[in-house]
Amino acid sequence: MLAESGVAVTTGQVLESVKRKGPRITSLVTKRGTFVAQTFVDGSYEGDLMAAAGVDWTVGREGRAEFGESYAGKRYPKPTMKISGFDDAGGLLPLVTTAAAGPDEAGDEKLMTYSFRLCLTRDPADRVPFPEPARYDPARFELARRALAAGARVGFDLYPLPGGKSDGNNSIGGQISLGLIGGGNRWHAADADERRVIWEPHKQYTLEFLHFLQTDPAVPDKVRKRYAGLGLCRDEFPDTGHFPPALYVSESRQMKGVYVMSQKDIIDTPEKDDPIAISSFSIDSHDCQRAAVAGGGGVNEGTMFPVRGPGTGVGYAYHMPYQAILPRSEQCANLLVPVALSCTHVGISSLRIEGACMVIGQAAGVAAALAAKGDVAVQELPYPVLRGRLLAQGQVLDLPARAPPKAGP
Predict the structure, then answer these.
(1) What are phi and psi of 331, to 5 degrees?
(2) Is the whole-model pTM more than 0.90?
């Protein structure tokens, strides 16, 4: 599609700085060149261009009172593990991030865990054994041994893919899984070199966890058998040793834009006057921290199990408003932000999915082109013009009727 549209793609460009004139970006500078445009789109998970342009942003979780969100603050849907999260000297065990999770109603700067999405197979013709982890330390998984002994869920989810392959994903319902809890909290603030440094411990943890599941005697036979025989796919990611080259950045910076999407926009007031797309993924957050409880017990905090429409089994359908991808006009007049967009942690827990990024990104690209053609600020682009162009391209902007809740017994 890019080739058909005449789009020139340049890869490996690392943003260094942004040049501005008043509220407009005039060019961005990378390590390999300078790029000039009338309108810019920041399609990154991290919002690096947005931040470099001086647009306000936030990171982490809001308190419940800030936007009146019942799902904000601290979340404890998983049972407390009946184990100690402390070692014999009273220190935190490895993989435990805190002994004080903070007040239930308060926000913080913690992010849902990052992990790799692993493409796996059991097919001997395609299977490549997992690389042996360097410096494997069995003591790192003492918490996992205690959790398994207490009957807690340790492992990861496998979703079927074509060609006899599986997608290995961090288990939202598991107590210990592929996500390195706390490992991505500083990702947004890091430059490209620092992100490579953060990336490596995530890979190391992933390989160690796989090794633990397949070899440790504390892993029950039925659990070990589930993961035995799995390996990386010979025909996937050959340039990176068949290991995924990208870390799954679940959330990062969020713009403080013209309109902030929050829980109410997903559940209570889904219809907007300026829709550019429809999203419908469940509100769904993975763990943000793992706490050791004084006196005994360990608890994962931050998970939001999928929040779905009553009686439907699927997420709420809701409008994505144009104003949520717009910076405030005094901060930047020619930038659109469709991924690190203006929303709360609860909001991004639904909007973070790739399908939403695609349809919102489509609208952002159309808006950028129309604003450039009309030589207007993105905030001044007439919505009817944008809507007409989106509809002409087949974008769906009418919400489906919401199914009524099923009657009780």
Answers:
(1) -95, -40
(2) yes
Instruction: Find residue 165's DSSP bridge partners.
Output: 121, 161
Per-residue pLDDT tens over the stretch 114-169: 999 999 999 999 999 999 999 999 999 999 999 999 999 999 999 999 999 999 99
Q: How far is CA 88 from CA 93, 136, 175, 218, in A?
A: 9, 21, 22, 19
Q: What is the DSSP letter of 40?
A: E
> What single letter denotes the amino acid at residue 151?
G
Q: Find out whether 329 and 377 touch, Cβ atoms under 8 Å.
A: yes
Report pLDDT digits (tens) over 342-378. 999 999 999 999 999 999 999 999 999 999 999 999 9
> What is the residue type of 106?
A
CB 263 within 8 A of CB 346: yes
Q: How are beta strands 335-336 and 40-41 bridged, if at all?
A: parallel
d(CA 14, CA 386): 31
Please list the alpha-helical segments (H only) found in 259-382. Answer: 263-267, 345-351, 354-374
